[in-house]
Amino acid sequence: MNKLTLTRPDDWHLHVRNGDILKTVLPYTARRFARAIIMPNLKPPVTTVDQALAYRREILAAVPSHLNFTPLMTLYLTAATSLEEIKKAAQSPYIHAFKLYPAGATTHSEAGVADIKSVYPIFEALEKYDIPLLIHGETAAADCDIFDREQAFIEQLLQAIVATFPALRIVLEHITTREAADFVLAASDRVAATLTPQHLLYNRNALLAGGIRPHFYCLPILKREHHRQALVTAATSGNPKFFLGTDSAPHPTHLKENACGCAGCFSAHAAIELYAEAFEQANALDKLEAFASFYGPDFYQLPRNSDTLTLIKSTWNVPDVYGSEAVAITPLKAGETLAWKIRD
Q1: Of 10, 115, 189, 247, which residue is the catalytic one?
Q2: Which pTM does this prediction carry?
Q3: In the chain, what percentage of residues exceed pLDDT 70?
């Protein structure tokens, strides 16, 4: 196959930051995706509808004039989130979900929730208003091995959340383990999951073998090969519970390549091309369109896109760095060759 035309896809998990980084990275997403769920973990976090609407305006101002792109806004859930704010979010056409970060689990999660059961009244309100809850599914317990934190969260917390709030729409974000895929498969159709390109393409050897390679460091961290294979099986299964969410997370190169490197892989520069590579390796390119373009909007109860995007089999070299000297970002597959590219 040398050409692949898809209904234009959406990205159901995206970080674009703000300021100069936003202006640098957003055009790459807008060229590939019609919409994206925007993560709210800025500093300070986006916790109110008014803050989200201001952030939305900043994002729209950074979209190139020749591209059509719609940011889908989310609110950062905290122990202080009020029921009135949830009602306000439910009434806004621009707010599409709340995001739960366990405190200390990932980048800018300091304002997250330390005691999950304490926010059960918030979950009850989200269930009432049918607002999706997006979960970074890792425990932040210091005594839990970093490679086991997703499984521990599922066993210790998520099973109870799903049982207590059966009508709550939940997206378990950026799953990384066979256990997570199995949990989503066994749950009701109110539970779904997003999958990133790095977790479909790489196992933990990419991060650790031959030296520490910080641009493969993300949270949840890359896992063993049998987990990667389970994720590929889920992504290519044709099951609507699994859909595209890049978790593209831009950090300046100098903050990745230091003694306390930031967590996150920047993939927006070639996101759909990277997914095409993963699906082609699995001999499942015929399953890519539904995964990228259908299942996400269906779960979020939004219309599917009507325009298309075409990929052609044509090799190109990924630059070592994107941006400028002031905002230099090292991408996933920096300096390597990709087999698919977007047709201009």
Answers
A1: 247
A2: 0.97
A3: 100
